[in-house]
Amino acid sequence: MRARTRAWLAGLVVRRIQTKGIDLTQLSFIPEPTKVPLQRDGVDPLPRLAELRATDPVHRLDLPFDFAVYLITGQDETRAVLAERTRFSNDIRHLFPGTGPANAGDIGGLGFADAPVHTRLRKILTPEFTMRRLARLEPAIEATVAARLDALAAAGPPADLARELSFPVPFQTICELLGLDLSDRDEFARLGSARFDATGGAAAAFGAVSVQRAFLMDAVARQRVEPGPGLIGQIIREEGDAISDRDLAGLVDGVFTGGYETTAGMISLSTMVLLRDPAYAAVVRDGTRAEVDRAVEELLRYLSVVQVAFPRFAREDMDLLGTPLRAGDVVIASLSGANRDPYSAGADPDAFDPARVPTSGHLAFGHGVHRCIGAELARMELRIVLPALLRRFPDLAVAVPQQELAFRQLSFVYGVDELPVTF
Ligand code: HEM
Hints:
One of its GO terms (molecular function) is oxidoreductase activity, acting on paired donors, with incorporation or reduction of molecular oxygen. Keywords: Heme, Iron, Metal-binding, Monooxygenase, Oxidoreductase. Its cofactor is heme. The longest helix has 25 residues. The N and C termini lie far apart (60 Å). This protein has a single domain, classed as CATH 1.10.630.10. By secondary structure, the chain is α+β, with helices and mostly antiparallel strands. The strands form four sheets. It has a five-stranded mixed beta sheet with strand order 3-4-10-7-5. Strands 6-12-11 form a three-stranded antiparallel beta sheet. It has 20 helices and twelve strands. It is globular, with a radius of gyration of 21 Å. Helix 8 runs antiparallel to helix 10. Bound molecules: protoporphyrin IX containing FE (HEM). Protoporphyrin IX containing FE binds next to helix 14, helix 15 and helix 20.
């Protein structure tokens, strides 16, 4: 009976992931302890995460599955697991009965793929994310930011910073990167807002995901005939028929999903944190390039908007820093936990310190072969948008107390969908 219940619950999770991506908000049966890495108090992780890091850094979650799920919360454990190439797999297809290798792209692109598929697909994307290629995007990002700051000024005060700035900047940046033309962008934006807007009900959101995929397939097919100036056209020029429209649309969808809400979350939450103290805002508004870069790194560490890394599956029975794991067990790395580890972050890891130089770097972009491919692009966007915002609006302030803001609940990517500001 217990086995049947487990199978039924596992089936529910899998169906939900298949239809809506990984969003646990609707899974009310998940036991409280498992929600810990996704819950926060404002921008801070819950104290329980620090307790676990100190007392049980490889913590077995109480879940009704036939395999064990472990939550790791420390910097060392996280680095050790994410750096593993052979003993862990990212491939979740064994949870999706009936899916073959050809369907890997449907499930989640790079993040859920292993070598050799991951190596092949990542190699196709990498040249587009080098500093040299990204430098070409800089003027476009600056122009987008300037236009969005004008839009913010026209909308208020008060105005919604998330709507006017935090979402449009990464959206336009990714469209520029991909080489979508202006009419495509309007259509894509319309689909994108349906995808992330729950007011139309779940069915509308599910519909929008598949319509968005279909839209990308269509954009890829059109560029196959006439390759455009961005990433889609470049890949078509370099790969030709070696990459199918479907694989390419999947890669593009992964880039969009990976780079949109993450960067938007960072822009809104960073603004909130910088406005807590005029001295913080001054560093970013008036600081040297090195000071701004350091503050951006600290914001990435402190906010850790991607709360957990992609799940890792043990390929074999093994010992993980003293804990025995069986083949098939799952490890969830809490990046917000690891980034507040005093061992690596340095003194007072729960404090925001724009001049901090962490003892051993941070893990906001992950680590190892799946480390975020868009890290340099995200840094570039933040380095452009945050100083420009603070310079343009010297009296910028969040319009409501923090406890009135609607922070995301149980979302893998943390953030706020609205941020009312005055200026
Ligand atoms: C501040 C913004 C961002 C944060 C915090 C972030 C964070 C992350 C993290 C933690 C991972 C997973 C690492 C792992 O499980 O090992 C990841 C993977 C990924 N990110 Fe980002 N990301 C950001 C922006 C972007 C941007 C701008 C893009 C592209 C335009 C992007 C595209 C991707 C892709 C394609 C992957 C999968 C890489 C792979 O599996 O090989 N991300 N990101």
